[in-house]
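From the thread on structure requests for the teaching lab: each student submitted one protein with a one-line request. Submission from student K.M.:

"Model Heme-binding protein 2 from Cordylochernes scorpioides, tokens only."
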Amino acid sequence: MIIMDYEERQYPAATWISTSAEGPSLTEASQEMYRRLFSYTQGNNLNGIVLNATTPVRMRIIPCRGATCPSMFIMSFLIPAELGEGAPYPTDGALYIEREPALRYVIKMWDSRSFGGRPTETDWLEQAHQLAELVRKDMYVEKSFYYTVWYDPPFQLFNRLNEIWMVKNIESGKPANTTEGTKRA
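Reply posted by the TA:
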């Protein structure tokens, strides 16, 4: 359903391999987390299975709510649907498997459905602020965190597909708990 400058999408249950980092900068946190996750997909897991690349890649960002605290970043690679519950366990203790129920997201659209190119940290933040403003009055949208999402490999320079996601909790019939997203992984 398309609403103003964002849309809502329902996604099925999914399994993700994730890792987290704290820090002042998305850029600094991203490199190490991507390396860990990529290593997992290349066979550094208990079964030694090489996984095909899947998309999207997402980064959950839990912004710092004070002057001196670090932000929390959680990067996740989607596990191929055919593995589902059979996802191989990681050998790296900094990685963990997340099984997520079906979720509804509100998604920031730019250039029809998303924004392209290689966004800077400032670009991501600007897009997240725009989406937060668009859904400001929607009491079912979780506003304490957001996701940056990309669909293309890092070496693809042009025609990239990028989005901002926020979770919409309509199934419970209760407004979003805006403090729940501040839990640390």
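TA comment: The radius of gyration is 16 Å. The mean pLDDT is 84.
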